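note to self — DONT lose this again. spent like an hour looking for the file last time. sequence + predicted structure for the chain T wanted, 151 res
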Amino acid sequence: MLDLVRKMQPDDWHEIALRWTWDHGLAELNWITSQRDCDRATAVFVLCKGEPGEIATRASNGHAGFVRAVAARLENGFYPRAELGLDLCRRDRDAFQRQLDIARATGESPWQLPEGLIDDPGVRRHAPRYSISDGQLHWCYEHWLAHRADR
């Protein structure tokens, strides 16, 4: 799957990150968040799904190094692309904000993240060509309907 992800664009990466099941491993997410073209909203979403507050204050888990690396990139301004907004429900937004607040409260790097990461509206919604479900890549329905479906 990583070979396919490498051929995709930032909007596709965002969709993959939104739907990724962490039990399938982190190679794809690690590659996506290591790219300068990765949108900041994608990196923020991945960071928050990794529960940075838990990692910053408790014993490390299997993905702690990965989450710390994403946090360090965000802290240091690694992601110049900031077109996409996070379209989160209130519950997820609050949970993500709590995780960031807990991590920031440590006063340590890489947890000194910029304020407003969750609330940045971006300038547009993502428009992916591909999506993922049950570990399988497929056409995103809206893209398929607009560009691939028989007329």
